[in-house]
Amino acid sequence: MSDEIIPIAETALLIVDLQNDFIHPDGAYARGGQANAAIGALPGKLKPLADALRAKGGWIASTHFTLVPGKGGEPMISPHLKALRPFLRKGDFMPGGWGHQLVDALQPADLSVEKVAYSAFYMTRLEWMLRKAGIRKLIVGGIVTNGGVASTVRDAHVRDIEVSVLSDGCAAFSKEVHETAIDALRPVARVTTIAETLAEVTAA
């Protein structure tokens, strides 16, 4: 974290995994009985900030959790995830599929990256895209706070990318887990709110 004011043109809202298969009533997680109200509310909460950033010349970037198809199209699922989410099946989180896409409320994204683990930097081209686009600051929202969000924020920090995390723009499957994860990120990121960030973007 630094005191430098980074221009909006070099700033991106990084939307972590707000995909149809996680969020939509017809998605994989709803089918598996894993719908969550706090998670489902995020697209509507983040939309005003996304719209404001677009209007000011900022960037919208999205990460997409991916189940890579293998032989016969069967998804390659890590053992821990298979145990945790046994309802996942062929076609879920498939590259190019409807469930893999960013939810409609937050489209379009200027940059998007497929990811296979928690961090959006792990074995992806995200860092390369950010450098090419001249993006030096990330404002991070999405799911889950203790998983994809936390891992991505920490990986941005070690790459000397200025990063803010939206305390009310992220969610986990429990409020307690969310709050603990946000507190744990304070040493490596600025913790702010959607309203505070929206005011800063609007005033820029």
Task: Provide tags for this entry.
204 residues, alpha/beta, six-stranded parallel beta sheet, 9 helices, 6 strands, 37% helix, globular
Distance between the termini: 19 Å
- Element order, helices and strands? EHHHHEHEHEHEHEH
> Radius of gyration, rounded?
16 Å
Mean pLDDT: 97
Strand order in the largest sheet: 3-2-1-4-5-6
What do you see in this structure?
Helix 4 packs parallel to helix 9 and helix 7 (145-158) runs parallel beside helix 8 (175-185). The chain has helices at 20-23, 28-31, 37-40, 42-55, 79-84, 126-133, 145-158, 175-185, 194-203; strands at residues 11-16, 59-65, 111-115, 137-143, 162-171, 190-192. The protein has nine helices and six strands; from the N terminus they run E-H-H-H-H-E-H-E-H-E-H-E-H-E-H. Strands 3-2-1-4-5-6 form a six-stranded parallel beta sheet, with helices on both faces. With 204 residues, it is an alpha/beta fold.
What would a concise description of this structure say?
The chain is an alpha/beta fold and 204 residues long.
Question: How are the SSEs placed, and which strands pair?
Answer:
Blueprint: E1 11-16, H1 20-23, H2 28-31, H3 37-40, H4 42-55, E2 59-65, H5 79-84, E3 111-115, H6 126-133, E4 137-143, H7 145-158, E5 162-171, H8 175-185, E6 190-192, H9 194-203
Parallel strand pairs: 1-2, 1-4, 2-3, 4-5, 5-6
